[in-house]
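Incident review: delayed structure delivery

Summary: a single-chain prediction request sat in the queue longer than the usual turnaround. Root cause was a stuck worker, restarted by the on-call engineer. No data loss occurred. The affected request and its eventual output are reproduced below so the record is complete for anyone auditing the incident later.

Affected input:
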Amino acid sequence: MNLPRFPVSASVLRRWLKPGIGIKRWLVIVFVGEFLLALAGALLLRQVYRDYDFSGPGQGVMFVLTLQFLPYWLRGVAVGVSGVGLFVYGSWRAVGVLMGPFRSADGDQPLVEVIYQKRFLARGPKTVVIGGGTGLSTLLRGIKEHTSNITAVVTVADDGGSSGRLREELGIPAVGDIRNCIAALADSEPLMAELLQYRFPGEGEGSLGGHTIGNLLLAAMNSIQDGDFEEGVRQMNRVLAVRGQVVPATGAPVTLHARLLDGTEVTGQSEIGRSLKIDRVWLTPEEVTASEDARKAIDEADLIVIGPGSLYTSIMPSLLLPEMMSAVRRSKAIRLYVCNVATQRGETQGYDLSDHLEALERHAGSDWIDVVLANNRFKARRRGIGVAPVKLRWPPVTTDPTAAPPRLILDDVVDPDNSHHHDSAKLAVAIMRMYERETYERRRPRSVRTA
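Output delivered after worker restart:
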């Protein structure tokens, strides 16, 4: 029988006693119980030693088993060492059998790391992330290392590629961004992401050409749940055992529209993403309701993160839902807007931080963002281009600390190998650092804060 490997180095043993495991108190109780049992056994043996004659005729076996040939103090040492050895070995093997199924499939991660991770992450802040596209999945990969209480509220307005075809053929909301977020939150992320993102060859050729497995799974789950898209996504979360949950912003198909500054109207997320000088965006049908799971998660949240992601085509579609925006406004959570590190061709071409905030205010109103997080490192390189910093293909989003109404935090959150994207780990650390600081400030007495 192959048991999981348990490293017994000093560092691993110390990790078992670190705060967050939740095992120390029970170990103390176990050891107290064993001590009492040992004490009872010692009292019994003491009485037997007094009343029984081990040197009499026919008592050779008992003479050896009771170590009569050793000095009295050495008998205690020999029994003690044997007891400790049997206890450690038996406990090690028993824990291996009981906890083996809960370890990672490859068995490379020590059990103490698995337990610490599960217990520690379960105590993390209840975090709601609203957005879509690459930015949202990038953030989720980082934030899931700090908390497992995550709800990703994902836009369903996409109308291009495999998502668009399934939407036209089956009448379901767009599933592409949901698939990306589920892959990002999966515990076995590398393998799961590779499976969910696999795209059948041949764009638009045959019934499967151009479709991804993840999109097809979501479409199939929607059919299994009799067209209840929200329930279908819930079941996908359970089947793939994601860390947290991914929920659609709404369970109904929606279409994104935009009006440009010259009065031209554009329909469809993909077309709007390529458009310059956007004035306003809106959704049809207008009476569509926000997801129940999303509203509930926002009501219970400690932290709400808006973005990163395409301003008009990934973030706005969720905020344009009246019920969603109402829930965000009344929430007592810390509400953070994460600005993109670079502008995007078309929809945010030429925008700085103030332009992003003005667009959010124009569509969702003012005085609802508590903190803004923006990048302050502008010398990252484009992926695949030499080691030295190069001029960006699309300029970074510049900041003016004096012009931002909410509290502004500047930090190095850009991917050093890709100047147009956030670094998931650095972004998550910056967000958690902000959350801890803001939470501390909120808990301080008002008189101290205003002094």
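Verification: Confidence is low (pLDDT under 50) at residues 1-8, 384-392.
Action items: add queue-age alerting; document worker restart procedure.
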